[in-house]
Amino acid sequence: MKKLRALWMRLGGVFSARQENDEFDAEIASHLQMHIDDNLRAGMPPALARRDALVKLGGVEQTRQAYRERRGLPWLETLGQDLRFGLRVLRKSPGFTTIAVLTLALGIGANTTIFSIVNAVLLNPLPFPRAEQLVVLHERKPNFDHGSISYPNFLDWRQDNHTFSSMATSRGYYFSLTGAGPAEQLDGQFMTSDFFETLQVKPMLGRTFTRAEEQPGAAPVVLISQGLWQRKFGSSPDVLGKGIALEGRAYTIVGVIPASFHFSGGILPSRDVYVPMGQWANPSLTDRASGMGMRGIARLKPGVTIEQANADMERVTRDLELAYPAADKGIGAKLVPLKEQMVGDVRPFLLVLLVAVGLVLLIACVNVASLMLARSTGRMREFAVRTALGASRKRVIRQLLTESLLVAAAAGVLGLGLSVAGTHAGLKLLPEALPRGEEIGMDLHVLLFTMTVSLLAGVVFGWMPALKTSQADPQSALKEGGRGMSGIRHRAQSIFVAAEMAMALVLLIGAGLMLRSLTRLWNVDPGFDPHQVLTFGYTLPPSLLHSSPDAIRAAYHEFEERLTATPGVRAVSQSWGSLPMSDEDDEDMFWMAGQPKPADDSGMNWALTYVVSPDYLKMMKIPLRRGRFFNTHDDMRSPMVAVIDDAFAHKFFPNEDPIGKRIVLKSGAREVEIVGIIGHVKQWGLDTDDTYPLRAELYSPWTQVQDSFVQRAPSGISAVVQFNGSAANASATIRRAIGQMSNEQIIYDMQTMESLISDSLAQQRFVMILLGTFAAVALLLASVGIYGVIAYVAGQRTQEIGVRMALGAQRTDVVRMVLLEGMRPALFGIVVGAVAAIGLTRFLVKMLYGVSPTDPLIFSGLALMLALVAVAACYLPARRAASVDPMQALRAE
Amino acid sequence: MGEKADVWQGTLALMVLKTLETMGAQHGYGIARRIEQVSDNQLSLNYGTLYPALLKLEQEGAIASEWGVSENNRKAKFYKLTRAGRKQLEREAKGWEQTKAIVARFLSPAEEA
To answer: Within 10 A of B109 (CB to CB), how many other CB atoms are there?
Structure first.
């Protein structure tokens, strides 16, 4: 307490220094006066009386000094002096200060940006209470490690497990909203009752579903999003109990879900409406073998680990396997922590970017360090004089470090500003590439990070020049006019050059590999031609839902015909099953006709199924290998036909001609005849399709689809359209044409096939662009750095060069000498960089496609390029050095 | 050197406090003279060292100061003991007595035998 009070007073002393100095001077004066008075009274002569008083005091100046040190906090005052002095020094060389601050700000800004992304995506907890307990459930089956769960299985999992406090499942669905303004498509979800309870999201109004409402046949109720509530109901509080018409049915609103409920980027995008699962009139819902695109979300009981949950679910699924061998043979549960599910894919990308951006900052630091070192040579005399006057080495280092920290702090502030602007721009540019993108922004972590990085940077680039400068022997420095230290200096600067080259090469190689990998991907043949083709989802009017299958088929025919007749549209096809490169995939099981039906599903064969129109092949430009594709005569009255792809033919008919062979499809137990073979299309993405276990593709004409499926189809299927002219025009005409058919008909998610493909590469592109930017910045910084060092060193040696030339050295000799001086460390750095890159690019392996992480062409090409840049950066100063007039140089001595 | 100064500083503070207790409010010069007298001139006190010690005590709240006029009509800064200072004196005097007793016991020849 006493100490604290004293500290506080002393802190105050720092700021009221002047006034208290005056006061103390007065006190000393009064002390001396009284002492002199006494001495005089004792009979001393005046001169002696004064001297005696001064001697007894021990010197006025010493007393003052001791008093001053006790009054304030000396180190704080020194710091203040250092800061003031540092600011003055920096202000006096605005060129140096600007370059140093800008260089560092670039590095710090880039680091802050990437860190703010890493922070939001990887570090921050998910926006749910105790999110670490949340687990996503998949069904593990022969072809899919992360397959969708069948509803009966889910119900049993929910009932039989002992390790979860709650479990829910949901399934995306597009609902048509009618009767409230023009018809529109709502992004919705069918879900079980505990969905929001599992996430611990509370409705802002009303309640969530009860278990009873989850049952089929329960009265239809719905939860709506805050967005829809505002848009359609003007945020009216008495919305509860009101009805909305979904799919032509009246649903009662029981609650409103807050807009802060985000679930994007993972498995469950945010939605407009939430409907209990039981309202889904889909017969497959009760089929234990049908996945139906469902994933589960569950919350672990407190204290339960994921391993325990895995073991528990293993027991549950083994029991089900015994109970339902036909459907559940080989079926397991796959648990993935929610955070892992959402951001697991991007973690390696982001870590690579973090490392890359750290290298950029290091290069910036090295640049500034080398600038400071060069500059400190000019200040050798200054420090020599200070040392001679009694400044300790510590004091000199402190002064220099204070200057670096000032630069770093300014750069930190500027970098933070750059980062705020950059993050906004960057996210707008690539909004879909990152999960949790909406959570990215500045927060305390980011600010702390920036502060730490700035301070560290200040120390990193400040300490070496400070040490070097303070090492200088004042004697020789004063004698030689600051030229004597070149030996030490050169070594440090060579290290700087080598380090910059090495780091720049690592970044260049990383970016080069990504670029090459991306070009490879772009050039991968997807198996179809995406040009001039677009796709969209649509629904027929809900009134058709309850019509006869033939009426529905007629409506589709009419839709197709009227759309085909639209100007600008060249061909139209339905697309009811899988759609390449989109997330839409559909599968069916089958067995060979003539063989007995396998006892259970694990004995069946799997294929991706495509349900299309005759024009599909032509418009997607998929090559026909053998046989024929569908035509308008393939309908319900003609024999059932199918077309397969290369992969199907290779897998199931390796040594025989598939044409004319018959297979039996499990859904509807329909027997179909294979009439043609076409090329394989990449369903699963340009890079991953080759390694996917399920690649066999089976096409059916939509005109032969069984009645039960046709009756469900009106609510949400896709069409593919080949168009003339621009996609924007085509999209507008198609929308207009469909609008004219019926105002209850909805189209949504219109997208060109080209953009589907490019979206599938969004993440790689995001990394490539950023890595490329960092590499470009690194290259720029490194070349400026090496140029600066060589120019400076050459400048220092002007006299020496003059002497050499006076003694007969040729200009070419001088150029060679200076070039070599720069190139030796540069080449050394390039070798080190190449070796480091071999070690580091291993971490890129998962992100690369069709290019080895040690691709010799990339390594040698970029090393060569960097060497050439270094030569150019050295050549300019070398030529300038050689153009020195020896007379002039010597005279300057 | 640092340690020695600390002991000296501490003792000096004790002497200052005791002086102020005995004499009441006093200026720096007066305190210095008094310490010298009491020590029977056996202590060679650099008067200058008194002022940082006074400042320290003031910062710690043991003494307070104000400008006044000396007996010889000189303007001078007078220091006086605060309540906290009185307590501190009591405490430190006790502590000093203890130290003295312990050291004395070590040094007494009877104990050594």
So the answer is: 6
CA A406 to chain centre: 32
The strand pairing partners of A663, in sequence order, are: A592, A672
Cβ-Cβ contacts under 8 Å, B41 against chain A: none
Binning pLDDT at 50, 70 and 90, where does residue A813 land? Answer: confident
CA–CA gap between residue A411 and residue A402 (Å, rounded): 14
How high is the pLDDT of residue A836? Answer: 93
The whole-number average pLDDT for the span A673-693 is 90
Among candidates B27, B55, B72 on the partner chain, residue whose Cβ is nearest the Cβ of A71: B55
| Cβ under 8 Å to B: A residues 31-90 | 31, 33-35, 37-38, 56-59, 62-63, 66-67, 69-71
ipTM value for the complex: 0.85
Is the torsion defined by CA of B16, B19, B20, B26 positive or negative?
Answer: negative
Residue among A28, A38, A70 whose CB faces B55 most closely: A70
Domain ranges for chain B: 2-112
SS3 A191: strand
State the Cα–Cα distance between residues A630 and A613, nearest whole angstrom.
Answer: 7
Collapsing DSSP to helix, strand or coil, B13 comes out as helix
Q: What is the pLDDT of residue A531?
A: 93
Q: State the fold for domain B2-112.
A: Arc Repressor Mutant, subunit A (1.10.10)
* 3-state SS, residue A348: helix
Q: Between A and B, how many CB-CB pairs are < 8 A?
A: 72
Place of tokens 């090329």: A679
**How does DSSP classify residue A691?**
G
C-beta atoms surrounding A66 within 10 Å: 19
Nearest alpha-carbon partner for A113 in A773, A708, A615 = A773
Yes or no, beta carbons of A69 and B52 under 8 Å apart: yes
> pLDDT tens, A126-162?
888 888 899 999 988 877 788 888 888 999 999 999 9
Cα A209 to the center of its chain, rounded Å = 36
What residue type is A265 in one-letter code? Answer: G
Q: In which band, very low, low, confident or very high, does the pLDDT at A798 lie, cut at 50, 70 and 90?
A: confident
In whole angstroms, give the CA distance from residue B111 to residue A152. 95
Residues of A in contact with B34 (CB under 8 A): none
Look at residue A377 and tell me whether its pLDDT is greater than 80.
no
**Percent of all residues in chain A with a pLDDT value above 70, rounded to a whole number:** 94
Question: Minimum mean pLDDT among A559-573, A813-827, B38-52, B55-69: which range?
Answer: B38-52
* Paired tokens of A224: 């709506």
Tokens standing for A130?
Answer: 């105790």
- Single-letter residue type at A324: Y
Which pair of structure tokens corresponds to residue A80? 């203040």
**N-terminal to C-terminal alpha carbon distance within chain B:** 34
The half-sphere exposure of B9 on its side-chain side, counting CA atoms within 13 A, is 15
What are the backbone angles phi and psi of residue A201, rounded to the nearest 5°?
A: -100, 130
